[in-house]
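cron nightly-structures :: item 1 of 1
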Amino acid sequence: MLTNYSKSIISESRGLLSILSDDFNSSYKPYPYIFKDCFLDVNFAKLLQEEIINIPESEWDRYNNPFEQKYTLRDKFNFPAQLKKLFEFFESENFITELSKLSGHSLFLDKTRNFWGVHKYNSGDYLDIHVDAGIHPTMGLKKQLTLGLYLSSNWKEEYECKFEIWKGSNSGVVDPTILECIEMIEPKFNRLILFSCNDYSWHGNPNPANCPDDAKRIFITISYMSNNTKDTNKRVKALFVKRPEDPEDLLKDNLRLLRADPEKYKDIYKVN
């Protein structure tokens, strides 16, 4: 049963347990994922959106490289009030217990908040297809499950920048490739996404946002860790790949390798 505190955040019509679904582990998918609508209480979700929109531009980092065009909130330890309340819920013991049941692994929090994020996309922004880091850069634990939440109430389907699930080869090999887009998920307001971070978790939103200035694409993420040692992806930085329809670009291919290199990624990762 949900506590009163939980009910003030999670939509009572769906409930926390509604995220537990056999669909998450369906064998027909390239990796476990699920998305559910109406996750938060709608009034709380609107408060969150307004709070994030009103964060001063000076507090955001601009990611500007051939693979990522977006804004990310710089300080992960001093969130505004409503955002702090949301992440406190995501950190709660009951919530992590339920997510552990869903994933099949005992999950742990990232106390460094390296695997947390508050992201904002303007018109023209995008994120190429990639597999996330497999291992936490300092704690050495497996990045096991990622939760994402969209908070853009005036977003329309024609604004593009959909979240894409791709089928591809093992990200732990030398030269992985992606083969087929399995699903394109619209970033609808108050939509929750959960996906497993394994060797085949190719995802992104590579088609640029095409939206007016008052329709920013807001995406909140938090990832959980485990002691899983079976996956071969031991990278500590994300690995980006080209889509089959993308033109050949040897320079960009080289930059992809630099982006995944824990020593050299800063050369192209963030420029302002």
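cron nightly-structures :: done
The two ends are 46 Å apart (CA to CA).
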